[in-house]
Description:
Layout (H helix, E strand, L loop, with lengths): L2 H7 L1 H33 L4 H41 L6 H42 L1 H19 L2 H15 L2 H7 L2 H46 L5 H38 L3
Helix pairs in contact: 2-3, 2-4, 2-9, 3-4, 4-5, 4-7, 4-9, 5-8, 5-9, 6-8, 6-9, 8-9
Amino acid sequence: MKIMVILTENWVKLCFTLFLLLIEAGIAMLFPLFIGYAIDHVINGSYVGVIQLGFLGFASLIVGVGRRVFDSRLYAQMYQTMGVRAISNMKDAQPSIKSARLGMIREWVEFMENSLPELIHAVLGLFGVILIIATLNLRVFYASLIVSLVIFLVYGLTRKKTMRLNKSSNDEWEKQVDILNRNDKHALSLHLKEMMKWNVRLSDLEAGNFSISWIILISFLLVSIHIGVGNGMVKYGALFSLIMYIFQYMENVANLPLFYQNWLRLKEIKGRIESL
């Protein structure tokens, strides 16, 4: 079963949910800027900025709820279709492998429903925030580019190890039903120990990468605040917006590598699903 065939069959609905995602991400990107405007307006005795911020929040609610309601029905249908076709093509496979593959297909669908929107938000947010930072402070903008490259390099260097650990974890997963059917306590204990061993190794790798990235990001935050204040930003709203966008940038840069690691796992799963 080719996953791309299922995606192609639902391309109109997928394009629609992507359209809603882009609107939602664009609205989210504007919040710090509108909060800064609201602060400056209130300081000057005007509530125009507060009203604009309220409308922005209401628009975010309508688009966000509508997309989630639509997505839940779309991906439920896709999971059913993918599951039936995959198992139909695996008539001679062992029940343990069939069960594991259904679980893997569910991981794919859950990624598209839950993680993909967050990924799109993070990617668009990262580029959008970097561009907005460029309009607020060029020195912070240049620093953000350097920090992004360094963090992506850190995760890129561990790509092969991540793929290898995911393969070992999935190999063990596919044995699960057969081991359960044996009713062998010792065999089950060894199986669960192996499963947790690969999970722990993946978690340790992620923790190491995240620790290095977070140290870099905290250093970037401290330097950026110093640059912003030292640059003579006298408008409190503008300074507040800069700090908020720096926080948004940090969140997006910290999350993107985690999505990348998840994608590496799904890439390995995709090969298994399409192999039979």
